[in-house]
Amino acid sequence: MNSLYNNALKQSHALQKDLDKFQSGQDASAGLQGQISASFNALQRSIDDYDNLAKRELIPVKKETALARVAKFRQDLQEMKVRFEATKKQQETQKLEQSRDSLLRRPNRGANAPEHPYQPLSRDEFALREQSFARNTDSQLDDFIGQAQNLLENLTDQHSILKKTQKKILDTANHLGLSQNVIRYIERRSAQDKWIFYGGMIITVLCLWAIVHFIG
């Protein structure tokens, strides 16, 4: 159970750092926002797993401590979600205001406007626009790859937790003298979880390869 607690604590601290970076404006990219959303889901799963083990704890003192930690985790998670949504709304409002100010500052050409406003771009203007498009594409690729890497790390963390949990369950089952059928059932479920993990990892790697191969 301590491993689950330490993992949830690690995820919570990492999430706090990402939120600080996002709120300060140091990084407001879509990639970081996707990473934060994925981290919310991963932390929620870790808290639920820890909560389930805490409820099955036989020692009253340990059970009470674990449940108190679960409550603190849930409170922190809710506060971080509220903070994230508030920051997103604030940044969206700022972008709208900047766009409005930009439109208002545009000069009114009036009678001096050309008869054909859609003039072809010069070579320099076309090159600048092409460079800007390339930079935006590279930035989006980095965002996609960052999200995929974060999902892969979350899958790896979950796999490690499942392995540790399986070992503890089997040890407890042997200690309590459960039947071999029950133990074999637990092992089958663990094997299914392992295949799910490998499948998720393969899909993530294929997505990364497709992004780099077809878009990069």
Automatic annotation (TrEMBL):
GO terms (BP aspect): endoplasmic reticulum to Golgi vesicle-mediated transport; protein transport; vesicle fusion
Family as reported in the entry's similarity comment: Belongs to the BOS1 family.
Membrane topology, from the record: Single-pass type IV membrane protein
Record key words, sorted: Golgi apparatus, Membrane, Protein transport, Transmembrane, Transmembrane helix, Transport
Molecular function as annotated in GO: SNAP receptor activity; SNARE binding
Transmembrane segments: 195-215
Biased composition (Basic and acidic residues): 86-104
Function field: SNARE required for protein transport between the ER and the Golgi complex.
Keyword Transmembrane helix set for record: yes
Positions of the UniProt region annotated as Disordered: 86-119
GO CC term (a single one): ER to Golgi transport vesicle membrane
Localization in the cell: Endoplasmic reticulum membrane; Golgi apparatus membrane
Pfam families on file: V-SNARE_C
Name of the protein in its database record: Protein transport protein BOS1
Keyword RNA-binding: no
